[in-house]
Design brief:
Blueprint (H helix, E strand, L loop, with lengths): L2 E4 L9 E7 L6 E5 L13 H6 L3 E5 L16 H15 L4 E6 L2 H12 L4 E7 L19 H13 L1 H12 L12 H11 L4 H13 L3 H4 L6 E6 L11 H7 L3 E6 L6 H4 L1 H13 L1
Parallel strand pairs: 3-4, 3-5, 5-6, 6-7, 7-8
Antiparallel strand pairs: 1-2, 2-4
Helix pairs in contact: 2-3, 4-5, 4-7, 5-6
Length: about 280
């Protein structure tokens, strides 16, 4: 099932085509939500394993990324979450596990607070951006300085290709030190996905994932929750994100990947998959 059309509530876009991959079958649905600036293809290390374990696995490309439509607007988390809601509604998915990687963790948190848990069995926050990345007087534990958000945006606008190359290297390096823990083929695949993103989408979602406050959203989560995060994540640091999310969701389990960079679902795929399967089967 390569494509579906999602009806978004806020913008009235009745023909937003979202690229979807669905393994089908009667198993419990697992929806994998990708990080910035990648696409649903970033879950290639997880999809076959989950499918073979009997789950119905759905990946999709967020609007503006991968093979989905690339409108000029709609890159705030409320609208992105409306897209996720439209996807679950259109496929009539129930008893779902939502797995949000990095930026995708924001959609998981916002979905639960906005649409409730009627369709949701459990959730996973993987290297995820909640509770809130940017540091401020109201969010002193935020791991991202405002100047870093500005620098990221400026660097992207100056030279998009150079930015992606550096970002993907940090994505797969412990503490962003340049010691890349994936194969060159995997690195190139991530770069290919990044370059599919529209410039507008990439720029606007930098602001969204860096500045959006998910603290109240997390308080709405009551279903079983797995937080999985690398302790050498140089992009979304564990202490300011994953550990705080775990602290805010009382029924959550935290698994820390020792030496894991941001992209642990690829760099530490065996450990990531083992924890994810154990959680799904628990």
């Amino acid at each position: 099932m390569p494509d579906i059309t999602v009806n978004t509530q806020l913008l009235g876009l009745k023909d937003l085509n979202v690229h979807v991959e669905d393994t089908g079958g009667n198993g419990r649905p697992v929806v994998l939500i990708h990080g910035w600036p990648l696409s649903g293809a970033s879950w290639s290390e997880q999809v076959p394993l989950l499918r073979d374990a009997g789950y119905r696995v759905i990946t999709y490309d967020r609007r503006g990324f991968g093979q989905s439509d690339k409108p000029a607007s709609g890159y705030d988390y409320d609208t992105l979450t409306d897209d996720l809601f439209g996807l679950l509604e259109q496929l009539d998915l129930r008893d779902v596990t939502l797995v949000g990687f990095s930026m995708g963790g924001g959609e998981v948190a916002r979905y639960v607070s906005k649409y409730g848990e009627d369709r949701i069995n459990s959730v996973v926050f993987a290297s995820a951006v909640p509770p809130m990345l940017v540091k401020s007087p109201e969010n002193p534990e935020g791991p991202l300085e405002p100047s870093q958000v500005t620098e990221m945006t400026t660097s992207f606008m100056k030279d998009e290709n150079a930015f992606y190359g550096q970002f993907i290297d940090q994505f797969f390096s412990p503490d962003g030190d340049g010691n890349i823990l994936v194969t060159e083929e995997q690195r190139q695949e991530a770069l290919t996905q990044a370059r599919q993103a529209s410039r507008t989408a990439a720029l606007k979602t930098i602001q969204s994932f860096a500045l959006t406050d998910f603290r109240k959203d997390l308080l709405s989560v009551t279903v079983p929750t797995l937080v999985i995060h690398g302790d050498a994540d140089g992009i979304v640091p564990l202490e300011g994100s994953g550990r705080r999310t775990n602290d805010m969701i009382l029924q959550s389990k935290l698994h820390v990947v020792s030496g894991g960079p941001h992209g642990i679902n690829v760099s530490h795929a065996d450990e990531f998959n083992e924890e994810l399967l154990a959680f799904l089967e628990g």
